[in-house]
Amino acid sequence: MMLLTISTYAVGELDYSGVIAVSFLLLTALIKGSFIIRDFMELKGVALIWRVIMYGWLWTVCLVIATTYFISI
């Protein structure tokens, strides 16, 4: 998690932009979000419906952000 956080910070500090940077940041957000849902929220052993809701929300938010970005360029 720390490595992912540091890498996203580095992308911002180095002023990277464009499709590759946004894709990397969204992929990093998906990975970190999955770790948080699975481990911090302790949803790895619960009913499937709760995992579908949480992971679905994560994917929906990231896909809406990506779609909005790609439409705007």
How many distinct beta strands? Answer: 0
Number of structurally distinct domains: 1
Number of helices: 3
Specify the helix fraction band: over 70%
Q: Beta-strand percentage? A: under 5%
Summarize the structure.
Helices cover 81% and strands 0% of the residues.
Explain this structure.
- The chain is mostly helical and 73 residues long.
- The chain has one domain.
- The chain has helices at residues 2-13, 19-40, 48-72.
- Helix 1 (2-13) runs antiparallel to helix 2 (19-40) and helix 2 packs antiparallel against helix 3 (48-72).
- The chain is flat.
Give keywords.
single chain, 73 residues, 81% helix, flat
Blueprint of the fold:
Layout: H1 2-13, H2 19-40, H3 48-72
